[in-house]
Structures are given as structure tokens and as C-alpha cells.
């Protein structure tokens, strides 16, 4: 394993001095966060000019989007303000490492709190519907999902309509809890959504996060997880479908800061149409204290037409060799010729064969979501996306940028 001289020198100064973007200097002070220029490692893929200033200093006007929800037995859903809202800022352990997260925590006056009682077993999903009405109004929101010890629950965040939204979602998973958080970005074509999901997973708890992005002009989601005790497990799943001109960006960070923890990341995406762009960056940090951990991350991209671009960048940083296992897989490609030949040889028309291959590509991931009505909805949505380019699905050669080897530090 090769370590550069600069990294080796940093390691000699101690674990907190590693020269890596996986060790950001967070701060609640807005003055500590410059406006991104696009030259920063964590912003180099994002089309900043299309973010309507959400990453910088666009005014956070009063909410134009409407939010509705249900509240099954054992769940409290409430919009809190004042000191109760301030007490929830950073409840997940989040210390802002970007200007937009620092602004959201400092400037948004209220917080949507979804509070699941300890030991509650919630029979139906908690659904939070966010509907945008005006993309010209830049706005922000803070959401906290708090799951009590040994609770079992599913929360679905569904985003539709037209909006320009900066959002911070904090998730606290209590010891022994078994929870799922599903975030759908099914916006109208002009929407802009800049969001960070930050989760802390308790001792022996199980956390599933599912990110599903179909709509919007630009959607960037940062999904981070760390652990407050040993034995915690995180499964991070994602599904996205980028159409002509869309930019869909997903960034993952699994910070193994407790021993005997686990993380498993699987993201799959398809691209079609001129200018369709997908970015996936998977970061895993295994700290010195995280002995006995196991982690794996995978990203697959299927290019359906010419003119698309996909970036798939896995990063793995290891500070201890006392682990169970760590690995990654990343790929961008066109249709599998063998699969197409198999289907065509059985009399299936080429367009139908390609449609079946796409469904097969997504199907195993969709079935892991665990909410049957949502799984059926996604199958229908994939079908609708494919219908946009009937007759154009080709064996296109993918345009790939940023296919970067992992960063490994020992």
C-alpha cells in the first residue's frame, strides 16, 4: 500500500491531522465558510450557476412550499420554534462543513420534528409531503427525525412541485432501533434542491437510508452517517434516472468512528438524453478506533443514449488494519450485449429487450426498499422515464469523467 510523503507526514502528527477532505473543519460560524467557487474538491462537479444562489447568499424567504404529514400512533410530528428548535440544531452531531448548512441551521426559525417514541413499533410509514409552488422563491428547511431506543419505523420524505430549496435533514437513531428513511426527489423539471442528510446511529441499531431522484433541474444530496456506539449498521441505497439537461448528484460519507460497525452502500442510476449528468461520490473513513468494522460501497450507471456523462468516484480511507473487510465497486457502461442477445434470440423485439434490461437493472434495488406500494410506484416511474426516449435507446458509448481510483491511507 503506497502512502504519499505528505500524507505520511500528516499521519505522524496524529489522527486528526490527516490531509483529506474526509476530515473537514466544521463550524457553526458562517464567517468560517466561504462561498464555493467550484474549484473545491467537494464542489467541483456541481453546476453552481444553476443553484439559484442556495450555496451562497440567496435570501431564505418565508416558505412557499407546503408541508403536510400523517402521524401514526407512537409518532409526534410538529413544527417547533424558539428554544426547542434551537436545541435541535446539530442534534445528529452535525457541525456544518459548508456555507449552506451553516446558513440553514443559523437562519431557519423553525424545525419540522418527527419524534418516534422509544420502543414504538409504527405499523404504517410516516409520510411527509413537501410540495413546491414557486422556483423563483429561494427557501430553506430544517428537519429532524428522532427515533427512540428500540423503536421500529419508516419515514418517507416526498418532494414534488417546483421549488428552490436548501434543506438539512438530521436523523438520530436510538440504541437498538430499526428504522428506514426514504427521500424521494420527484420534482418538476425546473426545481433546484440542495440537501444534506446527517445521521447518527446508536449502539446495535439498524439504519436504512434510501435516496430516489428522478425530477428537478439540479439535485444534490449529501448523505452522511456516523455512529454513537458499537454494533450499529447502516444500509445506504440510491436510485436515480437523469434525463436531458438534468444534473443529479449524490455524495455519501460513512464515517466509522466506533468499533464493530457496518455500512453497505448500493446506488444505481440510468442516464438518457443530451446533457444528462449523474455524479456519485462514495466516501468511507475508517478511524483508528473503528476496529472490527465491515464496509462495502457500489455504484453502477447505465447509459441509455448518446450525449450523457457520468462520474463515479469511490474513496476509501483506512487508519487501522484491524477490520473485517472493506471494498468498493464502480462502473459506467451501456447495455449488456449478452443480455440483449439472449432476449432477442427468443423473439423479443430490440426496443422491448432494452426495456426489460433496464427494469432488471433496477429491480433488485427497488425490492430492497421494503415499502410495497412505493416499490410498485417506482416500477411505474421507471417505465414512464423509458417512454420519454422510445426508439432512442442505443448501445451508446458512455462519456465518463472523473473515474478516479480510491484514496487509501494506512
TrEMBL record:
Pfam families: SUFBD_core. Residues 137-361 form the SUF system FeS cluster assembly SufBD core domain. SUPFAM superfamilies: Stabilizer of iron transporter SufD. It comes from the Bacteria. GO terms for biological process: iron-sulfur cluster assembly. InterPro entries: Fe-S_cluster_assembly_SufBD, SUF_FeS_clus_asmbl_SufBD_core, SUF_FeS_clus_asmbl_SufBD_sf, SUF_FeS_clus_asmbl_SufD. Belongs to the iron-sulfur cluster assembly SufBD family. This is Iron-regulated ABC transporter permease protein SufD.
Amino acid at each position: 500500500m503506497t502512502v504519499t510523503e505528505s500524507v505520511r507526514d500528516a499521519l505522524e502528527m496524529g489522527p486528526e491531522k490527516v490531509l483529506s477532505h474526509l476530515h473537514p473543519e466544521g463550524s457553526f460560524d458562517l464567517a468560517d465558510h466561504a462561498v464555493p467557487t467550484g474549484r473545491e474538491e467537494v464542489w467541483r462537479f456541481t453546476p453552481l450557476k444553476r443553484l439559484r444562489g442556495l450555496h451562497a447568499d440567496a435570501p431564505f424567504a418565508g416558505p412557499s412550499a407546503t408541508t403536510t404529514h400523517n402521524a401514526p400512533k407512537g409518532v409526534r410530528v410538529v413544527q417547533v420554534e424558539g428554544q426547542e428548535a434551537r436545541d435541535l440544531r446539530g442534534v445528529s452531531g452535525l457541525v456544518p462543513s459548508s456555507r449552506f448548512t451553516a446558513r440553514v441551521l443559523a437562519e431557519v426559525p423553525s424545525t419540522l420534528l418527527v419524534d418516534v417514541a422509544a420502543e414504538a413499533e409504527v405499523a404504517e410509514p410516516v409520510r411527509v409531503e413537501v410540495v413546491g409552488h414557486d422556483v423563483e422563491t429561494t427557501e430553506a428547511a430544517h428537519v429532524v427525525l428522532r427515533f427512540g431506543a428500540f423503536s421500529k419505523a419508516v419515514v418517507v420524505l416526498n418532494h414534488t412541485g417546483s421549488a428552490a430549496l436548501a434543506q438539512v435533514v438530521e436523523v438520530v437513531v436510538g440504541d437498538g432501533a430499526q428504522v428506514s428513511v426514504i427521500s424521494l426527489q420527484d420534482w418538476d423539471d425546473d426545481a433546484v434542491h440542495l440537501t444534506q442528510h446527517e445521521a447518527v446511529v446508536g449502539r446495535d441499531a439498524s439504519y436504512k437510508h434510501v435516496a430516489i431522484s428522478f425530477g428537478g433541474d439540479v439535485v444534490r444530496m449529501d448523505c452522511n452517517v456516523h455512529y454513537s456506539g458499537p454494533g450499529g449498521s447502516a444500509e445506504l441505497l440510491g436510485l436515480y434516472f437523469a434525463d436531458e439537461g438534468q444534473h443529479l448528484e449524490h455524495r455519501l460519507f460513512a464515517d466509522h468512528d466506533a468499533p464493530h460497525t457496518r455500512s453497505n452502500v448500493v446506488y444505481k442510476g440510468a442516464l438518457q438524453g443530451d446533457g444528462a449528468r449523474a455524479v456519485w461520490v462514495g466516501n468511507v473513513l475508517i478511524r483508528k478506533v473503528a476496529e472490527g468494522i465491515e464496509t462495502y460501497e457500489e455504484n453502477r450507471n447505465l447509459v441509455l443514449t448518446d450525449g450523457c456523462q457520468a462520474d463515479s468516484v469511490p474513496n476509501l480511507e483506512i487508519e487501522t488494519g484491524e477490520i473485517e473487510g472493506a471494498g468498493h465497486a464502480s462502473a459506467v457502461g451501456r447495455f449488456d450485449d449478452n443480455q440483449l442477445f439472449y432476449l432477442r434470440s427468443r423473439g423479443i423485439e430490440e426496443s422491448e429487450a432494452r426495456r426489460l434490461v433496464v427494469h432488471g437493472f433496477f429491480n433488485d434495488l427497488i425490492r430492497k426498499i421494503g415499502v410495497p406500494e412505493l416499490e410498485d410506484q417506482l416500477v411505474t416511474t421507471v417505465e414512464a422515464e423509458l417512454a420519454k426516449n422510445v426508439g432512442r435507446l442505443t448501445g451508446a458509448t458512455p462519456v465518463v469523467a472523473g473515474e478516479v481510483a480510491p484514496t487509501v491511507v494506512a
